[in-house]
Amino acid sequence: MTHSSRRPLAVFDLDNTLADTAHRQRFLERRPRDWDAFFAAAPHDPPLAEGIGLVHESARDCEVVYLTGRPERCRRDTLDWLAAQGLPEGALHMRGNADRRPARVTKLAVLRRLARNREVRVLVDDDELVCEDARRAGFTVLHARWATPSGDLKAAQEREGRT
User: Fold this and answer.
1) Of 3.10.20.880, 2.120.10.30, 3.40.50.1000, 2.40.160.20, which CATH number belongs to 9-160?
2) Over the stretch 150-161, which tens digit does the pLDDT of each residue have?
3) pTM for this structure?
4) Nearest-angstrom CA–CA distance, 111 and 116
5) Strands of 9-12's sheet, edge to edge?
């Protein structure tokens, strides 16, 4: 991985790393899943103190980057949520609206792209498969385990490529 003289990057996932999605999981429990309602409820996500604190701590030494499986159509709501939490500004990488690849594939592609000319100091993510693949690729990973895991969200990330 190539390193530059600029500050290293600390890369943070959003859902269940910085934002508590528990209140909107119900939209994924039904069949068919209600993706519009799931993402429409995201602006009301409570922050997860552990993740928010880690972003602020990381921002002392690193440039913060946000990497989410949320679709691009959620950009404005996501940027507004980040600002409302008082989080540092940083690049926001989102999934294309029609991209249905698993989160572990899309996120690893972004990490590799970032690492071409910057040191990626850490990835913080709640998705076990994302974390495993990133570690295998040589990235330092902090597995965010502070939110209640959701089987429906995990299926959405892996099998449906939705978040």
Assistant:
1) 3.40.50.1000
2) 666 666 656 555
3) 0.90
4) 9
5) 92-95, 63-71, 9-12, 120-125, 141-143
